[in-house]
């Protein structure tokens, strides 16, 4: 028997996806502020303090305050929005992805009730899923791991939905198997995974490699989700083209090409 609400879902779209959640009477979905797209008649929307999970509700006022305050450390709001179906039959509520990428449906009951993910990846979930913080216990991982000392954790036995940029790849690591990854490309991993960092090494790699000084190392057993386009990488590329002179990659004309195509400034 699940302790979280059981919900059905449909994911639509390719590059800019949305998830449509189907609710039975008195079922509830929770979501980050700003992700709401539309809902059917009969669904009531309510702003709640924290995530509305059972463990937070039984913690008292100070427990709720601490639970909500922890969300600030992961870059999230103190408040979330709950969508409850108060009518009859079935009704749907939809949430949209914030930037190009994929929505990842995760049944937490299949991963021993816990998943660790990057701080801004959570989109929505069934009511009862607890959204908290996960501290990196290793000093090197916290300093150089790309996500700092604090990551996000999802706990419960219901459905949760994360979002990441570009294409998403899921890898299953065997016991002792190691995967070295760019620190920004990690979306989520199961709690059995040992997460650490490794120095790239080599003078030429360090000075001229352009890939940073550290890899993230993920050691199995467990499941890992990776993204091809971290939002930080996308923002950096857009910023580089939006300021200063435009680069003409592979162009013989260089700045003259800008004049010919009307972009000479």
Polypeptide structure, described:
This protein is α+β, with helices and mostly antiparallel strands. The chain has one domain (8-243): Double-stranded beta-helix (4-Layer Sandwich). 18% of the residues lie in helices and 40% in strands. It has six helices and 19 strands. The chain has helices spanning 54-57, 60-73, 139-144, 203-208, 231-242, 255-260, and strands at 8-12, 18-23, 28-31, 36-39, 43-49, 79-85, 91-96, 101-107, 114-117, 122-126, 130-135, 150-155, 159-165, 168-173, 178-181, 186-190, 194-199, 214-219, 222-227. The strands form four sheets. It has a six-stranded antiparallel beta sheet. Strands 11-12-9-16-19-14 form a six-stranded antiparallel beta sheet. A hairpin with a 5-residue loop joins strand 1 and strand 2. The longest helix is centred in the N-terminal third of the chain and has 14 residues, at 60-73. It starts with 7 loop residues before the first strand and ends in a 5-residue tail after the last helix. 36% of the residues are buried.
Concise summary:
The protein is of the alpha+beta class and 265 residues long.
Integer tally of domains: 1
This entry's quaternary arrangement is: single chain
Q: Could you say what the CATH architecture is?
A: 4-Layer Sandwich
Mean pLDDT: 79
Segments where pLDDT lies below 50 for 5+ residues? 139-149, 204-210
Q: In DSSP terms, counting alpha (H) and pi (I) runs of 4 or more, how many helices?
A: 6
Kindly report the CATH topology. Answer: Double-stranded beta-helix
Q: Helix content range of the residues, please?
A: 10-25%
Shape: globular
Q: Strand-residue fraction?
A: 35-45%
Compute the CA-based radius of gyration: 21 Å
What's the level 1 CATH class? Answer: Alpha Beta
**What structural class do the secondary elements suggest?**
alpha+beta
CATH superfamily: Mitochondrial biogenesis AIM24
- Biggest sheet, strands in spatial order? 5-6-3-10-13-8
Largest sheet: 6 strands, antiparallel
- Count of β-strands: 19
**Helix/strand order:** EEEEEHHEEEEEEHEEEEEEHEEHH
Termini separation comes to: 65 Å
